[in-house]
Design goal:
The structure is a single chain. The chain is an alpha/beta fold. It folds into two domains: 209 residues, Spore Coat Polysaccharide Biosynthesis Protein SpsA, Chain A (Alpha-Beta Complex); 64 residues. It has an eight-stranded mixed beta sheet, sandwiched between helices. Strand 1, helix 1 and strand 2 form a beta-alpha-beta unit. The protein starts with 21 loop residues before the first strand and ends in a 27-residue tail after the last strand. Bound molecules: uridine-5'-diphosphate and magnesium ion. Magnesium ion binds next to loops. It comes from Nonomuraea guangzhouensis.
């Protein structure tokens, strides 16, 4: 995995007139009843600048009436499409589905809570037209709690500096992506899903653009500490083998230290207390090693499961693939059992 410099490549297209771009505005929503109406209104008014648009809501298993609100928009506005998951499958699954079912050449991903103002989309569009496949917004003066900001910069720094993972620095989920490229990224079987790390691996031309940021307009953030940590760990083990390499080096150090301690004990220079302390340290190192190896095993299992759909769709107002639809197979199931006639 190469170094984390941006791929500043020469433009491949001339900036065209904005209005003629085909754009899918994709909005993942999980229990966003407090924001979804305002999101629809704001995004719709920005889309008025373009001729060929659709709004694709991905309801990630909401239980608070978000889907009913979306259906209301769809009833009044034929450009509104929606997919509704059978349960909450997580943001990564939601936007993966959004990219797959987007029907326009470009997809802009929005947040339903409007933290990244929809009016910034035009700057993303203009930047993309300079010749990029993906333009990631970077939140200027990010309006989230300090631990969220620290968490993001911390884990991105570890990923880039220590683990050699190429990541667009500070990239948020507010972004414009060439839909065909986005589909490649979400269908990629390279490793575990993680959009901002997979796009560079595939060679997508990407850049970042600072955009304004504001607090959530209403409702609750969906991230807790457990989700944030597991998202970071997924990035580390999904895109770098360096921790495993470090474990081999650690094993060599522990062996040398162990042999030295043993020699000192035999020579009578180490008593039972020192030996007990040395065993404790070795035990702790073994536990850490096991934990790291366990994470890689989980990763392997996840990669094996990549062919299996990451989500199931319960309802939609567009055609969906049978294997991704909870009620998708219409032919009756035929079992393999042969029932003997008892008489
Ligand atoms: N979201 C989702 N599924 C989830 C969590 C979040 O679709 O499991 C959506 C959410 O409704 C919102 C966007 O992802 O539109 C960003 O979520 P949130 O505002 O909670 O994230 P933050 O801004 O705190 O990073
Ligand atoms: Mg938010």
């Amino acid at each position: 995995m190469s170094d984390s410099s941006l791929r500043e490549k020469p433009p491949i297209t001339k900036p065209a007139e904005r209005p003629r771009l085909g754009i899918t505005a994709m909005i993942p929503c999980y229990n966003e009843i407090a924001c979804v109406e305002r999101a629809y209104q704001e995004i719709r008014s920005e889309l008025a600048a373009y001729d060929d648009v659709e709004l694709l809501f991905v309801d990630d298993g909401s239980t608070d009436g978000t889907l009913e609100a979306i259906k209301g928009f769809a009833a009044a506005d034929p450009r509104v499409k929606y997919l509704s998951f059978a349960r909450n499958f997580g943001l990564e699954a939601a936007f993966s589905a959004g990219f797959k079912y987007a029907s326009k050449p470009w997809t802009v991903q929005f947040d339903a809570d409007l933290q990244s103002p929809p009016e910034e989309m035009h700057r993303l569009v203009d930047k993309a037209l300079e010749g990029y496949d993906v333009v990631f917004a970077v939140r200027e003066n990010r309006q989230d709690p300090w631990y969220r900001r620290l968490g993001t910069s911390g884990h991105q720094l570890i990923a880039r500096r220590w683990l050699g993972i190429e990541l667009p620095p500070g990239a948020s989920v507010f972004r414009i992506v060439k839909t065909s490229v986005a589909r490649k990224v979400v269908d990629s079987r390279l490793t575990t899903p993680y959009f901002i790390a997979t796009a560079p691996l595939l060679g997508a031309r990407y850049t970042t653009l600072p955009t304004s940021h504001r607090p959530r307009v209403d409702g609750q953030g969906k991230w807790n500490l457990r989700k944030l940590v597991s998202h970071a760990v997924e990035l580390f083990v999904g895109f770098s083998f360096r921790p495993l390499v470090w474990l081999s080096a650690l094993a060599a150090v522990v062996v040398v230290a162990g042999v030295t301690v043993l020699a000192l004990a035999l020579a009578g220079r180490f008593g039972p207390t020192e030996l007990a302390e040395a065993s404790l340290v070795t035990g702790l190192i073994t536990l850490v090693t096991l934990a790291v190896v366990a994470r890689y095993l989980v990763r392997m299992m996840r990669v094996q499961a990549i062919g299996v759909p990451r989500y199931q769709i319960r309802e939609a107002n567009i055609p969906i693939r049978a294997d991704e639809a909870l009620y998708g197979y219409e032919t009756p199931y035929v079992g393999t059992e042969v029932w003997e006639n008892a008489s």
